[in-house]
């Protein structure tokens, strides 16, 4: 049977949005509104059509110029939304590269949503306790998908290579390891029983202390940001400006009123914790969290997560995604506490195959690698 020939060309935001809706889910960074969150990147919605003219794939491309060079990195974070397991994968990717090259791209970076391995909460707990295990990948997975290796082989055969990760800017790659809580068809009470004893105790403690969790709106973003800046100072990362979150709110909620939500947890009139939640189809993400050290004993962080999980169930979601985790399980790792917190909700650590680059211009791509290695 002859392989299908695919054509890649710009599509409208409506076509893009409708395609994602028909698929049931996609990354929140692969909906057209995400382009409005990144004003420093030029955004373009692309569609894949087959020989019969049917739209069979879509992707949001973000173009970012390399410093001092009039060429761009074409970046599709956690995308595009195509059949990554197709045996003729190169026929999906070749027209993408050709299109981006025509737009002045020196390299194309994609983020296949292809899961390779997963470790359930019990396996992660055992890995942390085992002094002979330093990274999650060294521990026996609870399950793995052999098709992931096939996708990697096809990418390498088509001259794609694993992307170099870095810090912010060009290195703002998406996490390879994430924590996910499957919730499809589960009642909140069943999910609560799956929490660790400490999580259940903290949820109850927050309830008994009178912690109130409510949904906020755009007017509450400054309060969220105040806590977020305090969190950044405490945890040692550079915070995003308030304008970033206001832009995110405006762009995402204009596309879908429920695309982004803001939650606030208060006690005795003081907001102690806040978090943002993003939804695309059946996938819900805990996006950004913020908290103060004030009255931590009333457990506002557990309370806000529990409310978000319950609301995700009400939305009919299949997955509640806690986003990135560390792949190191050593006590010396400063991020281990976050892994312990997320794993307390039950669920599993999932590893995907990471981001991949196609160097259109090898000289400029090497310059990008050098730039990232210094950041």
UniProtKB/TrEMBL annotation:
Q: Where are the transmembrane segments?
A: none
**Sorted UniProt keywords:** Acyltransferase, Cell shape, Cell wall biogenesis/degradation, Peptidoglycan synthesis, Transferase
Is this entry keyworded Acyltransferase? yes
Q: Which GO terms describe its biological process?
A: cell wall organization; peptidoglycan biosynthetic process; regulation of cell shape
MF-aspect GO terms: aminoacyltransferase activity
Which SUPFAM superfamilies did the record assign?
Answer: Acyl-CoA N-acyltransferases (Nat)
Q: Does the keyword Transferase apply?
A: yes
Identify the domain of life. Bacteria
Q: Belongs to which family?
A: Belongs to the FemABX family.
Question: PANTHER family annotated for this entry?
Answer: LIPID II:GLYCINE GLYCYLTRANSFERASE
By what name is this protein known? Lipid II:glycine glycyltransferase (Peptidoglycan interpeptide bridge formation enzyme)
The top of its lineage is:
Bacteria, Bacillati, Actinomycetota, Actinomycetes, Kitasatosporales
């Amino acid at each position: 049977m002859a392989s299908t020939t695919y054509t890649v060309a710009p599509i409208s935001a409506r076509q893009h949005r409708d395609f994602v809706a028909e698929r049931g889910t996609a990354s929140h960074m692969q909906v057209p509104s995400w382009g409005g969150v990144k004003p420093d990147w030029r955004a373009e919605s692309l569609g894949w059509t087959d020989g019969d003219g049917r739209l069979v794939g879509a992707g949001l491309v973000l173009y970012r110029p390399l410093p001092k060079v009039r060429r761009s990195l074409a970046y599709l974070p956690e995308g595009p939304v195509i059949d990554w397991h197709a045996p003729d994968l190169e026929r999906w990717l070749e027209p993408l590269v050709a299109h981006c090259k025509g737009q002045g791209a020196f390299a194309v970076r994609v983020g296949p949503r292809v899961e390779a391995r997963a470790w359930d909460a019990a396996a992660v707990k055992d890995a942390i306790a085992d002094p002979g295990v330093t990274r999650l990948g060294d521990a026996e997975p609870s399950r793995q998908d052999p098709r992931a290796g096939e996708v990697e082989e096809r990418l390498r055969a088509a001259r794609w290579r694993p992307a170099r990760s870095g810090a912010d800017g060009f290195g703002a790659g998406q996490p390879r390891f994430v924590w996910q809580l499957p919730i499809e068809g589960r009642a909140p009470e069943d999910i609560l029983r799956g929490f660790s004893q400490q999580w259940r105790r903290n949820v109850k403690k927050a309830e008994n202390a009178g912690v109130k969790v409510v949904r906020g709106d755009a007017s509450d973003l400054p309060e969220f940001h105040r806590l977020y800046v305090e969190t950044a100072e405490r945890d040692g990362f550079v915070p995003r400006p308030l304008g970033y979150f206001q832009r995110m709110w405006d762009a995402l909620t204009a596309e879908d009123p429920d695309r982004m939500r803001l939650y606030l947890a208060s006690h005795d009139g003081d907001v102690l914790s806040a978090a943002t939640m993003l939804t695309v189809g059946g996938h819900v993400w805990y996006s950004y969290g913020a908290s103060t050290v004030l009255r931590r004993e009333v457990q506002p962080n557990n309370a806000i997560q529990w409310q978000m999980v319950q609301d995700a169930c009400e939305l009919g979601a299949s997955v509640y995604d806690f986003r990135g985790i560390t792949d190191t399980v050593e006590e010396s790792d400063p991020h281990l506490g976050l892994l312990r917190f997320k794993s307390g909700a039950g669920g599993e650590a999932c590893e995907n195959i990471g981001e991949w680059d196609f160097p259109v211009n090898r000289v400029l791509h090497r310059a990008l690698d050098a730039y990232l290695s210094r950041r």
